[in-house]
Amino acid sequence: MSENPVVGARELAAELAGPQAPVLLDASLILHRPEFDGDYRTDSGRHLWQSGHLPGAIHVEVDADFAVSAPTHNQHPPAQVLAERAARFGIGPDTPTVVYDSTGGFWAARVWYLLRWIGVPVRVLDGGLAAWSAAGLPTDAGSTQPLPVPPWRVRAIRDAWIDLDELREIDSSAANLVCALSPAAFTGAEPTRYHRRGHIPGSRNVAARSLLDQRGLLLPPTEITALYRDAGADLDREVLLYCGGGISATVNALALVAAGIERLRVYDGSLEEWSADPSLPLTVG
Q1: Distance, CA of 57 to CA of 189 (rounded, Å)
Q2: InterPro entries, from UniProt (predicted)?
Q3: pLDDT one-digit tens code per residue, 207-228
Q4: CATH superfamily of this structure's domain 6-134
Q5: CATH class of the region 161-274
Q6: Contact 234, 36 (CB under 8 A)
């Protein structure tokens, strides 16, 4: 089983008091619920970070600092570009890093997935800022500036992504494809941020939020794997994850890795890209 990709609040507090404290990234960002089809709106979470964050935490604008905007929102940059951007935040190839947010944990999972892709030893604070505060641990306000490190070359790249061209070539009904959106979004019962409602034919639904308890902590591994198996996913094969725009799917990836499941990839374009092509089918209901 791989190293636990999450760290508890008190364990992290002990590490921060030690000689090799990890770099802390606050990935808070606000993604608004769509009020009508095509309604995609975000707001920076910088003000949330400034009002209260873990001591020494640096804010990262995930949709700008660690993303490119084409062909869809929040696309991952090339690996070397991501490494160069990480260096600006004090992260080298071997720098222990912990990511959290105060907006539900999804953006922290996204940064975790990106940095893990290029080999950085990164974890997520389980439960985010809320869990830290619930443990009675101190927070700071105001701004913290990063201490950049020299640019570095990527040494190890995981097989982390599946793109549209590859997905077109496989039978989606047999592809072990899992959608991380809510059941209502999966069935098309509520507005979508993207072009059309529904899900990729043949895909299963394991909502990202269903993998967290009421406190925002990851469920135990046995409960995570049970949710996947109940949905009809085959955990003995590679799991392909998607959502609306490649964010929720990384929560599912985090949960799977925490449960010891490593064979997975994320379709980064997700429904934003898929639904933009009228020739590609979507299932509603």
Answers
A1: 39
A2: Rhodanese-like_dom, Rhodanese-like_dom_sf, TST/MPST-like
A3: 999 999 999 999 999 999 999 9
A4: Rhodanese-like domain (3.40.250.10)
A5: alpha beta
A6: no
